[in-house]
Amino acid sequence: MNKINMKLGQMLIVELDEEVILGELIHVASDNTFIKLANVRDIATNSLLGNQAYYSSEIRNIQIVDDAKDDPVSSAEHTPAPSPHVKHLSLDCLNEALEMVKNCIYIQQLDAKYHDAISVLKKERTLAISMEGVEEGRHAKSVSLISIATSSVIYIFDIKWINITKDLRDLLCSDRYRRVLHNGRLMRDVLEHRFNLVLGRCFDTMVAHIAISKATNDNALADTAKEPPGIIPIQTCIACYLKLPENFFNDNVNYDLRPTSNEAKREAAKKIAFLISLQ
User: Fold this and answer.
1) Which of 91, 135, 162, 239 is deepest in the core (most CB within 10 A)?
2) pTM assigned to the model
3) CA separation for the pair 279, 270 (Å, rounded)
4) Within its chain, how far is the Cα of 82 from the centroid?
5) Element (H or E) spanning 41, and its range?
6) Which sequence spans correspond to the domains of the chain?
7) CA-CA distance, 1 to 12, in Å (whole number)?
8) What tens digit of pLDDT does each residue of 5-40 get?
9) Does the keyword Endoplasmic reticulum apply (predicted)?
């Protein structure tokens, strides 16, 4: 286990070999060989696991989400102070994001659900935007989904079925809105050359990440700055700035299959759930 100052009552994110869980710390072995957590939840699937024990050999990393007022139960040394650019999600913010992912609204036809979504989105001024299937830009074989989120709800539009409607064009183009996205270069290329659409004003979290990486002396950020521009995934930024583990995401999802699987909807929602928090 990494060396952190653990206290009973803390909410922890524990990164294991094949899953990431959230739970309340209720016991730490005197020799730090295992911990027990209550109300454990798999944060990738949002499924409840009850009370669980985890041994140090299976734990890759631990992050404190919400602190406790108890005296420490471990005298392990503190981790270094975080970079001033690094944000830590509060428990409330994490739970809200996971609820948004769980309750994301998938839209594949121009029905009442679609019109309700457009009505909600048009009242906003800041929107998070993500697209699936744009990795090759204008040469992408199949552009699949457009996800648009507010600070409280995520909508996933299946543009294989409904294309990019006039309403969606307005949300993507109009300067009434400020959009938060990641690696907008690819999205812009697809929209311009495949849909004859010019994306409006945006805040690009990848561009911000590169700028911060060049300006900081923080080694963790400097390492990612060495990556070639254009290939820094949203997963890396979320892990770096919001301190969520990269394996929170499943990169092996096929967004092109129809009907769209619940896993594909969930992964698309996870990519956009934290974008507004990153700006």
Assistant:
1) 239
2) 0.76
3) 16
4) 20
5) strand 34-42
6) 10-65, 91-217+230-278
7) 13
8) 788 998 888 888 878 888 999 999 888 888 999 999
9) no
